[in-house]
Amino acid sequence: MNPLIAAASVIAAGLAVGLASIGPGVGQGTAAGQAVEGIARQPEAEGKIREELRGGAIEQLEKARSRLRKVETEAEQFRVNGYSEIEREKLNLINSTYKTLEQLENYKNETIQFEQQRAINQVRQRVFQQALRGALGTLNSCLNNELHLRTISANIGMLGTMKEITD
């Protein structure tokens, strides 16, 4: 049950008891007024009238006490039920918070793993690029030396041929 509804029910029950007490109060006042008139008319019947008036008042008081106990019992039930519901909602909220924290922790770990893998891949790529640059430099150097030697050999060959032709 919603705590707001439970609280409103307790308040409504209290108002009902209060309003219900107005009727007997007016009735007791009327009865007392009539009793005073009766005693004024017949002073010899005063003891009997007072006894009847007291008996009616005691009976009304017992009824009011009974209603009050009933309302107190209902209010206690609403209070206990309200506390139980609040405790259930609190536990649900705590469980939900733990689940959310667990999900966030998993997301954090996945993100960390992803970023680590990404960093490793970037390092591998840079190492591979540097290795390729070094190999290309070495290859170019070798090719340049080979080309240089061939060019020199070709020039020597041409000079040798030119010398033979001129001799």
TrEMBL record:
Membrane topology annotation: Multi-pass membrane protein; Single-pass membrane protein
Lineage top rank: taxon: Eukaryota
UniProt entry tagged with the keyword Isomerase: no
Subcellular location(s) of the protein: Membrane; Mitochondrion membrane
Signal peptide positions on this chain: 1-20
UniProt feature coiled coil, ranges: 54-81
Cellular component terms (Gene Ontology): mitochondrial membrane; proton-transporting ATP synthase complex; proton-transporting two-sector ATPase complex, proton-transporting domain
V-ATPase proteolipid subunit C-like domain boundaries: 11-47
GO biological process: proton motive force-driven ATP synthesis
Family (UniProt): Belongs to the ATPase C chain family.
Role description: This protein is one of the chains of the nonenzymatic membrane component (F0) of mitochondrial ATPase.
Assembly with partners or alone: F-type ATPases have 2 components, CF(1) - the catalytic core - and CF(0) - the membrane proton channel. CF(1) has five subunits: alpha(3), beta(3), gamma(1), delta(1), epsilon(1). CF(0) has three main subunits: a, b and c.
UniProt-recorded name of the protein: V-ATPase proteolipid subunit C-like domain-containing protein
Source organism (scientific name): Solanum bulbocastanum
